[in-house]
Design brief:
The protein is mainly α. Helices cover 78% and strands 0% of the residues. Helix 1 (8-19) packs across helix 3 and helix 1 packs across helix 4 (50-94).
């Protein structure tokens, strides 16, 4: 994903302008962003300070990293269970069951 050219402080400033009754179209035109970007920032960062925005990004990054680890471990577990089942069936077939 492309990194934003706006810092957290800049995003907070732009969102604050929207809270101060400045028209959204004017904010977007001056900042060079689309209204969709403004809407998504409001949805995600409304009411947050720049340091809270940074913390949110760190937590999202950590959450994604942990999800990948869980997915990898789940695949490993499934492969090992499959191997164990094959070994049990091959051992039973050798014993004549």
């Amino acid at each position: 994903m492309k990194a934003s050219k706006f810092s957290d402080a800049q995003k907070a400033f732009l969102l604050q302008q929207g809270d101060d009754c400045v028209p959204v179209a004017e904010i977007c035109r001056k900042a060079g962003i689309s209204q969709a970007t403004d809407f998504s920032w409001k949805k995600k960062y409304a009411g947050l300070l720049p340091d809270e925005m940074r913390r949110l990004k760190q937590l999202e990054y950590e959450n994604n990293r942990l999800k990948k680890i869980v997915a990898d471990l789940s695949l490993d577990k499934e492969m090992l269970q499959d191997i164990v089942k094959r070994n049990v069936w091959s051992a039973l077939s050798l014993q004549g069951f």
